[in-house]
Amino acid sequence: MTTIANYMSGDHRHCDAIFAAAESAVDEQDWELAKQQTGAFLKAMEEHFSIEESVLFPAFEQATGMAGGPTQVMRYEHQQMRSLFAEMEMALAETDEDEFLSVTETLLIMMQQHNMKEEGIIYAMSDTLLGPEDVSSVLSQIHNIAAA
What is the predicted pLDDT for the residue at 67? Predict the structure, then answer.
């Protein structure tokens, strides 16, 4: 059976790969490819955030009784990353390699720290506390969002 941790951690790796491709394209000054890869990365990240914010975090909060705490921190970090996404898009529009790579360096550090917290706390606790039926329900909802 697939777990929340396996699925969502795999999605982190998927987003990371697209992010690396976007950075690489900018580094090579292939601006058309950079726009395509950045667009794909931003779309994948927004889908990932949407899954967490609309499905996973509410299920976690219901199971733990914690409406604040870890999920509140994760939502705040999502907002911080969204601000960096906007800066990436501006740098890309201006074909500003230095600015783009500066923003992505900051974003990479933030994503690494964020992902470690989600994978070590939110995902692991969700699999443990939700129980098999609820995990299955959450994964079904996640798949429905991903397929849309």
Answer: 82
